[in-house]
Amino acid sequence: MNLQGTVAIGRDPPRPALGRDAASPTQNIPRGIVFMIVTTCLMAVSFAISKWLVATYPVGEVMFVRSAASFAICAAIVLPFTGIGVFATGKPRAHIARGLSQSVSQTFTVLALSMMPLAGATAIGFSAPLFAALLSIVWLKEKAGFMRWAVLVAGFVGVLIVTDPGADSIQLGALFALANAVMYGSVTVAVRGMTKTESANCLLMWQMATMTVCHSVLLIFGFKWPDAVDAALMIAGGVANAGAQYFWTRSLALAPTAAVSPFYYFLLVWSLVLGYALWGDVPTIGLLVGSAIVIGSGVALLWHEARRVRPAPRP
User: Fold this and answer.
1) Displacement of CA 280 from its chain's centroid (Å)
2) Which of 222, 228, 191 is nearest to 101 (CA)?
3) Is the dihedral of CA 291, 293, 299, 302 positive or negative?
4) Is pLDDT at 209 greater than 80 in this prediction?
5) In angstroms, rounded to a whole number, what is the distance separating the alpha carbons of residues 156 and 185?
6) For the chain, which residues make up each domain, given as ranges?
7) 10-53 pLDDT tens trace
8) Residue 281 three-state SS
9) pTM, to two decimals
10) Exposed, middle or buried by CB within 10 Å (0-12, 13-18, 19+), for 307?
11) At the N or C end, where does the chain have fewer CB atoms within 10 A?
12) Residue 245 neighbours by CB distance under 10 Å
């Protein structure tokens, strides 16, 4: 799964944690919140490492090493418990399509990071749930009342403020960030039914394997042998990405989506801090105002959808 967005709106995703396919027997909302905040820290570190490296190395090389390292870490944790049977599925084409879409989505994100401030790309990525909701209305013919449309319109106004279409210096990077948000939103809608039949570990391993293969193709566009420090940074980016996946999964296993998802927006805080510390990026008023609107719209949409969907009774 792609960690540059929020979880699917309106219901809890599958609960198994990495290494097991057993649900957590009890909820622990405070711990789930802490795990979600740790997730955002690791994601911000992974994004910052990618942004740092693509200034020197080809995007395809950075993406491949990150995906390969993430796949290796996840395999080392999951396979001892599940064996190769974790890949057993009746929907191989759906898994491949999902992994391919995620590969393109993450590549767009790193391209955006190479062209604009870390916090700006992060803020635009927060619009993915808005695009998912819009596509659900257009594609799945879901009904949308006044509240849903109002939230979507407000959210997209926030995106326009963040992207600042008149600023040529960030226009191309903003377009890549928007492309990531649109694609991730479409993937959320397209694979919504997969969680009913596929375990979290199956989804994870198929995604990691497919992304590694897809990003390996990008190596034909360039490769530069890294020195020891940069090689370690590339691997560290993959480890941070895998760690974010683990804590994200554990967070959702311990608490309802509506309880922990708002804390995903801490990612912007860490992005602002790292952007200033590493590149001297000072957030503009437009970025702060637009981000606040996008985040507020995302939280409002999550709250609205959670009220519309009653959770299934627990056994």
Assistant:
1) 25
2) 191
3) negative
4) yes
5) 14
6) 29-308
7) 333 333 444 443 344 467 888 988 998 999 999 999 999 999 99
8) coil
9) 0.81
10) exposed
11) C
12) 25
